[in-house]
Design brief:
Number of domains: 1
Structural class: alpha/beta
Radius of gyration: 17 Å
Shape: globular
Helix content: 40-55%
Largest sheet: 5 strands, parallel
Mean pLDDT: 91
CATH architecture: 3-Layer(aba) Sandwich
Number of helices: 9
Number of strands: 5
Order of helices and strands: EHEHHEHHEHEHHH
Length: about 180
């Protein structure tokens, strides 16, 4: 019999509800740096939306860059926007185009969770009533589902690729993953 982490028996007949998410450029770059791919990502969410503007930012790094290749490898399991997003001018004045499109897509498509790493984007998403996660939050979820072996290794790979993470955030992520 399979057991949950709380010691209770796990009912395999109950289908878990998978949340939908809209993801910004920063978390895509960080997660690819951390794991080398995104093949594990569709196992965590129902609908995964990558706005047109975010995909354009990713492709600006070159059509065959690591992030583009990672997204295209899971293209059949995610929704990549094919049209420009209608963005409220107030949001666009506060944030860059990618973050603005993430919030606008979430609000338009009734998706209540967004992945944004930047502080200003996270703040504005919360003001609009959205739940916010980031690259480390998604990686922690992947670790809990045994889709990645180690948060510590992911953080090391991210830092090796020039992604800055505060010491407090690293400590908290390692603690939550029972690795620190």
């Amino acid at each position: 019999m399979l057991m949950q982490s709380n010691g209770m028996p796990r009912n395999l007949n109950v289908k878990q509800i998978m949340l939908d998410i809209v993801i910004n450029t920063g978390p895509i770059i960080a997660m690819v740096a951390a794991t080398g791919n995104l093949k594990w990502l569709p196992s965590l969410y129902g609908r995964i939306v990558i706005p047109y503007e975010v995909f354009q930012e990713i492709e600006a790094g070159g059509l065959n860059n690591t992030e583009s290749v990672a997204l295209l490898a899971i293209e059949s399991k995610i929704l990549i926007g094919s049209n420009k997003t209608q963005i409220d001018a107030v949001i666009l004045r506060e944030l860059d185009l990618g973050e603005s499109s993430v919030i606008a897509n979430a609000l338009t498509h009734a998706i209540d969770t967004v992945a944004i790493d930047e502080k200003a984007g996270r703040r504005l998403a919360r003001i609009h009533g959205l739940k916010v996660t980031g690259s480390l939050g998604i990686l922690l979820k992947a670790r809990r589902h045994s889709l990645i072996p180690s948060i510590g290794d992911c953080i090391g790979h991210m830092r090796d690729r020039g992604i800055w993470i505060s010491a407090d955030l690293i400590t908290e992520a390692l603690r939550r993953a029972n690795e620190g």
